[in-house]
Amino acid sequence: RELRTVVQSALTARDQKNRQLWFGLGGLLIGILLWSFLPGMVAREIAPASWQWPERMATRVLAETTPWDAGQHLMASASRPSWEAIVAVDRLLRDNREKIEGCRQTARKADQPVRCTIQVGAEK
Question: pTM for the whole thing?
């Protein structure tokens, strides 16, 4: 009779260990699933926009130093031709900033579009 009790106790202990293992693995799986979407949801929905959590997360994920660099990385990888056009226009505006500002003032005074002459350099 005592032997039967000892055997039942051993079987119960083994079942309990199996249950603990399955519950532990289930908890781990649930934790992984929650971790995959919960931080993004918190960053977008709960945190104030001024904290810029989504932007910081994107910066970190892209291994860039600033959100500005991360944005450039995203634009360049999304559409290389569009990114190159943005860079070319920026260069054109930067090289002709004074002339363009003068033309804007002239257009404002005339209250209509005006012709402007700018310098365009060769592509590098």
Answer: 0.58
